[in-house]
């Protein structure tokens, strides 16, 4: 389960970047109590995150690699926090 405890102005890894992009787009959010990432079920926000990944990929990565990393993150995040249930 992915957790995000701190936010950095610049992402050091493509994985951190791939979490930050959908967070900024509003496609995912953190549980305010537990910090688990949850999908918000907003298709427009997901699309926006993919567009950002294509247009401004992680430095050193191709658009294809950036989209793949984003896809990995989004497909690993559920729509509920496991500790809230
Ligand atoms: Zn929770």
Word description of this protein:
The chain has one domain (14-76): Orthogonal Bundle (Arc Repressor Mutant, subunit A), CATH 1.10.10. Strands 1-2 form a two-stranded antiparallel ribbon. It starts with 13 loop residues before the first helix and ends in a 9-residue tail after the last helix. The protein contains 3 helices and 2 strands. The longest helix is centred in the last third of the chain and has 14 residues, at 63-76. Strand 1 (28-30) and strand 2 (37-39) form a beta hairpin. The chain is mainly α. Helix 1 crosses helix 2 (43-55) and helix 2 (43-55) packs antiparallel against helix 3. The protein has helices at 14-25, 43-55, 63-76, and strands at 28-30, 37-39. Bound molecules: zinc ion.
In short:
It contains three helices and two strands. The protein is mainly alpha-helical and 85 residues long. The chain has a single domain (14-76), classed as Orthogonal Bundle (Arc Repressor Mutant, subunit A).
Mean of the pLDDT scores?
91
Total number of beta strands: 2
Rg over alpha carbons: 12 Å
Q: How are the strands ordered across the major sheet?
A: 1-2
What is the domain tally?
1
- Strand percent estimate: 5-15%
- Form type: globular
Topology of this structure?
Elements: H1 14-25, E1 28-30, E2 37-39, H2 43-55, H3 63-76
Antiparallel strand pairs: 1-2
Helix pairs in contact: 1-2, 1-3, 2-3
């Amino acid at each position: 389960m992915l957790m995000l405890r701190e936010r950095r102005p610049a992402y050091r890894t493509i994985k951190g970047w791939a979490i930050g992009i959908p967070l900024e787009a509003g496609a995912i959010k953190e549980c305010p109590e537990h910090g688990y990432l949850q999908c918000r079920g907003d298709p427009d926000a997901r699309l926006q995150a993919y567009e950002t990944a294509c247009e401004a990929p992680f430095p050193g990565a191709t658009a294809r690699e950036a989209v793949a990393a984003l896809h990995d993150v989004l497909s690993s995040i559920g729509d509920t926090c496991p500790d809230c249930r």
